[in-house]
């Protein structure tokens, strides 16, 4: 065995704390996306954010279930998009994971609705801070990009049920975000590809939006590698 490949480390209390800090840095790209339901005749932010699960349609619920898996926030150890574990942000949330990505949907009807707060600020503090909004629109009105007030919602994916099994897509992007796909404005898609296409578009939209705010994006594994190198160099021991 060539010992030159290995280096002794001093197991100090500081070393243990820095390892714990390293464990809190995600190894995958983490993305949070807002998702909400617009019911028949609804128009305002207050109406939309006040919807509960029981106000939604079966087709919307089926779509939500197809986006990923419902995880129990009380016990889930993965990325939650800052949703609390104590039930104050709901009991469950839709979650998706693949090789390099963890994706959480801030699904508005899964969050508690406060009957004493017409603005639903507890929901808004999550949804209003997401770069990407997915809107399931069963209203007879065109959804306005400024409906959910705030500085985010830079990419908005609107889904409108058409004929059975067909869905119209509307895409809104802040300037100077360039087109990204796979869904484009005005497209009509079938039910069997809807969830995967919306999910892929949300991921690409999030990346484009974050590039607008941060000119360079560093992948989490590169951040972790840099931290590992720094910790190793800092805690090298002179002897085995």
Automatic annotation (TrEMBL):
Keywords: GTPase activation. SUPFAM superfamilies: Rap/Ran-GAP. This is Rap-GAP domain-containing protein. Residues 19-231 form the Rap-GAP domain. GO terms for molecular function: GTPase activator activity. The keyword Kinase does not apply. InterPro entries: Rap/Ran-GAP_sf, Rap/Ran_GAP_dom, Tuberin/Ral-act_asu. One of its GO terms (biological process) is regulation of small GTPase mediated signal transduction. Pfam families: Rap_GAP (PF02145). GO terms for cellular component: cytoplasm; nucleus.
């Amino acid at each position: 065995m060539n010992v030159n490949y290995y280096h002794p480390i001093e197991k100090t209390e500081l070393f243990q704390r820095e390892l714990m800090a390293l464990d809190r840095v995600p190894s995958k790209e983490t993305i949070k996306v807002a998702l909400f339901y617009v019911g028949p005749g609804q128009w305002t932010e207050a109406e939309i954010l006040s919807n509960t699960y029981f106000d939604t349609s079966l087709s919307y619920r089926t779509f939500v279930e197809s986006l990923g898996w419902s995880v129990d926030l009380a016990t889930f150890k993965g990325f939650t998009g800052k949703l609390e574990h104590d039930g104050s942000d709901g009991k469950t949330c839709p979650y998706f994971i693949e090789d390099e990505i963890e994706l959480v949907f801030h699904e508005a009807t899964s969050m508690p609705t406060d009957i004493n707060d017409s603005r639903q600020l507890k929901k808004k503090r999550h949804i209003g801070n997401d770069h990407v909004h997915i809107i399931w629109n069963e209203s007879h009105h065109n959804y306005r990009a400024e409906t959910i007030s705030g500085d985010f919602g830079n990419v908005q994916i609107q889904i409108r049920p058409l004929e059975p099994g067909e869905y119209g897509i509307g895409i809104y992007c802040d300037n100077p975000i360039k087109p990204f796909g796979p869904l484009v404005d005005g497209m009509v898609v079938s039910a069997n590809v809807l969830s995967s296409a919306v999910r892929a578009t949300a991921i690409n939209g999030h990346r484009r939006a974050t590039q607008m705010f941060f000119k360079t994006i560093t992948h989490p594994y590169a951040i972790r590698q840099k931290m590992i190198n720094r910790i190793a160099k800092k805690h090298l021991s002179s002897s085995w």
